[in-house]
Amino acid sequence: MTYQSPVLGQVLAHINATRPTAHARLADFLRIPSISAQPDHAGDCRRAADWAAEHLRGSGFSARICETGGHPVVIADHPGTGNGPHLLYYGHYDVQPAEPLELWDSPPFEPTIVQGKHGPRIVARGAVDDKGQVTMWLEAFRAWHDIAGGPPTRITVLIEGEEEVGTQNLLPFLHANRAALHADAAVISDTGMWDIDTPALSTRLRGIVYTEITLRAANRDLHSGIYGGSALNPINALTRILGGLHDAEGRVQLPGFYDGVVPLPEEQVRQWQQLGFDESEFLAGIGLSVPVGERGVPGLERLWARPTADINGIWGGYQGAGPKTVIAAEAGAKVSFRLVPGQDPEKIFSAFEQFVAARAPADAKISIRKFSADPAIVVPVDSPIVHAAETALFEEYGRKSVSVGCGGSIPVVEAMHSILGLDSLLMGFGLEDDQVHSPNEKFEIRCLDHGTRAHARLLAGLAG
Amino acid sequence: MTYQSPVLGQVLAHINATRPTAHARLADFLRIPSISAQPDHAGDCRRAADWAAEHLRGSGFSARICETGGHPVVIADHPGTGNGPHLLYYGHYDVQPAEPLELWDSPPFEPTIVQGKHGPRIVARGAVDDKGQVTMWLEAFRAWHDIAGGPPTRITVLIEGEEEVGTQNLLPFLHANRAALHADAAVISDTGMWDIDTPALSTRLRGIVYTEITLRAANRDLHSGIYGGSALNPINALTRILGGLHDAEGRVQLPGFYDGVVPLPEEQVRQWQQLGFDESEFLAGIGLSVPVGERGVPGLERLWARPTADINGIWGGYQGAGPKTVIAAEAGAKVSFRLVPGQDPEKIFSAFEQFVAARAPADAKISIRKFSADPAIVVPVDSPIVHAAETALFEEYGRKSVSVGCGGSIPVVEAMHSILGLDSLLMGFGLEDDQVHSPNEKFEIRCLDHGTRAHARLLAGLAG
Q1: Looking at chain B, which terminus has fewer C-beta neighbours within 10 angstroms, N or C?
Q2: Which chain B positions have a beta carbon within 8 Å of A326's beta carbon?
């Protein structure tokens, strides 16, 4: 148990003693309006990168700013003082736009401490996503540096500035810098806890296949009186095809859709049951009351560990006011599938093509495009780094962490895996009500402090 | 047989002798750009109304221009010289816009005689729709006036100026002038022949119920990763509902949809079979090859005498370029049903509501609007006026006319029936290739001349 380590004890004491300074540093970081989506703020993005690099240099890292096709990336290295695994910490310094400004109770780039039900919280754009969460490990590095001359294991840091605009320039950067970014595992703090008292590791992310289907029929729009009853109506045909995506039990009807899907480990099922997820409350928040999806499958499992099919958009024919007696020439839809471990995205895409072809009427000219095909990600939970994280969280919180899923995909996690060959430890300290991407974004000081200490503990636990 | 009547012989001879004058009058009518949709042409619409009134006065009618909420209506009366049925002739002096002008081979409002496969044709906007067809009966009245001092039966004329913009101001006008427009039957020439040698009476018009359905689910757009598998997707639900509109045999699945639909009379079935309709050719013209609709039902029957269900428009979620992982809050569609005799529009609308309700998932907030609910129209074919028309056409063409259907509805026919209590005789002389509403609209001179004589014969046949 690293808890016994006198060095860790000193590091944690140092973190506690320097809290005001650490909080002030976070406030400085938050004052930089590094909005990646708004060209006017390109200079602020660079300032945020410089600020982070300077922070890291203050902790003994060698840090540099690397150009990309967009906003720069911060790369930093520290050899560490021990021989544990080489960790690659990932975060992002860019933030979402703050609009609508009138809905903020305080200016988005003037960090403000407000008292909430969990004590003080810091309110600002980027408070939790992701400057506050990056700050936790920056401060953990700082404490290890101050007390022990550096972290107890080798560390590389990668902080990008385009996470909020799709991470598009990062992918070629990762490809081009594979050697420099070589490590044993990635550590990312951009996810959440189960609740304020229950730390969590996100160990399952669903994958996604995103498609667009277009169905063309006649060579022009037709009068429905003259042609109705003889000419193929592409909207009739498209709804008939897509209306059969699920059976009455909510199961997706693509051929072989569930092939390879393995049941959740018993232990995972039990753990999620114990979380006491209230799906009615979850749905009530969005004005709904009855869950959809596979009948008989518990809510969290449906959201985190079962595949889905959703039509994300549909169009065709006349969409204006009043009536128009037209049979359209064409109709289309966006259709996506959330995937779980065991499902091969390319096979799912082929299965969708087959599903459509089998239901396509004569004369339907169909094209299907593929926008993305990313597999689900499951973090091997019996790895040394996951065990170390569980230990760190247990010692910090006095209760076991839970292993949660994430219904959406986090593109950088897939990139870490496919480009750099790294599994990611997703240890985040956000809460569901943190207003991510919304006005009055906040981060609980309690989460910030616990998170900083948990990161310091994790490093101790991995010390070689 | 009125053919023997010496007066009719003189009338027909007069029509033949005065062809150049009649054609010149039509050309004058066509030179007036009475485009009802374009406010700049309001004065031209009034000029066209005046022109028609003047024409009628020249044939002994009392004619007046009546104001409406839009372009004026021409009303004219002639007591006739005999005691046959009182006929209400309906036509319209307004025309469609001529755009795109660059696709015309001659200026749309400079009528031009062009040689075609059927001999000379007159090319101009409105040539067949409806100035040329109105001219046929105007010239028949003129000939009866010149030879016999007036038509052999009482006639009222109603020529409107807003047919091409939806006839909206005519309906209150009909209501307000029911007494003045009292008659025994309506005569309308705004339809077509089967082919250049085969005259036709349109005896069946499908009705229509036109609806809009909206399905709302969550109170806002959702992230499909976070909510997919639990939250109702309104597009999934809408396609599932509408995808079930037809069974595999092409039959509409609304409860009781076919209740009251009577099989076509044997005689009608046989007549349509003999027409030799080539559905492959019909579909090839629009880039299709395989008919849809009820399996096993002949093409013309599906187009003219069987009900349909068509989705005329659909929308929901993300319709832009690329992917967006959204579960929409709402989706909607325009859905219409073509009706045949025996179907009650209000019952069909209720059946659609039931159909939707039975398939609506929990939490779906559904609203269905009704834009129109018009029954099908079938002209009783054993009436004296239909027999007289058949005789007139037989004597003019030397072959029997056919009784055809019309897949669409003609709103004024429904109005004649519901507001004035009149059946309509639909005796038209257009051809399928007349380019109605398109550049280079034309009317065959052969059709014009035959049509004028057929109208003159019809009047003789109805003389009391």
Answers
A1: N
A2: 312-313
What span, in angstroms and rounded, lies between the C-alpha atoms of A353 and A357?
6
Domain B207-261+307-373 has CATH 3.30.70.360: yes
CB contact under 8 A, B236 and A409: no
Q: Is the peptide bond before B130 cis (omega within 30 degrees of 0)?
A: yes
Among A67, A91, A71, A87, which Cα is nearest to A79's? A87
A464 has a pLDDT exceeding 90: no
DSSP state for residue A17 in the 8-state scheme? H
Q: Where in chain B is the domain with CATH 3.40.630.10?
A: 2-205+376-462
Give Cβ neighbours of residue A434 (< 8 Å, ≥ 6 apart).
Answer: A127, A128, A129, A192, A441, A442, A443, A444
Six-digit token pair at B190? 């705004």
For residue B450, give the nearest of B393, B370, B388, B368 by alpha carbon. B393
In chain A, ranges of CATH 3.30.70.360 domains: 207-263+277-296+303-373
Tens of pLDDT, residue by residue over A39-61, are 999 999 999 999 999 999 999 99
With contacts defined as CB-CB under 8 Å, which chain B residues touch A311?
233, 235-236, 239, 316-317
Say how many residues make up chain B: 464
Distance CA B356, CA B245 (A): 10
Report domain A207-263+277-296+303-373's class. Answer: alpha beta
Q: Whole-prediction pTM value?
A: 0.88
Which chain B residues touch A290 with a CB distance below 8 Å?
232, 361-363
A362·B290 Cβ contact <8 A: yes
The tens digit of pLDDT for each residue in A87-128 reads 999 999 999 999 889 999 999 999 999 999 999 999 999 999
Distances B286 to A224, B49, B224 between C-alpha atoms, Å: 13, 37, 38
User: Rounded to a whole number, what is the largest CA-CA distance in chain A?
Assistant: 87
Touching check for B356 and chain A: CB below 8 Å? no
Query: Looking at beta carbons, which residues of chain B come within 8 Å of A282?
Result: 230
Closest chain A C-alpha to B2 CA, distance in angstroms: 36
Domain covering B2-205+376-462, topology = Aminopeptidase (3.40.630)
Rounded to a whole number of angstroms, the CA Rg of chain A reads 25
Which region among A351-355, A397-401, B221-225 has the lowest average model confidence (pLDDT)?
B221-225
What tokens appear for B196 in the block? 């250049």
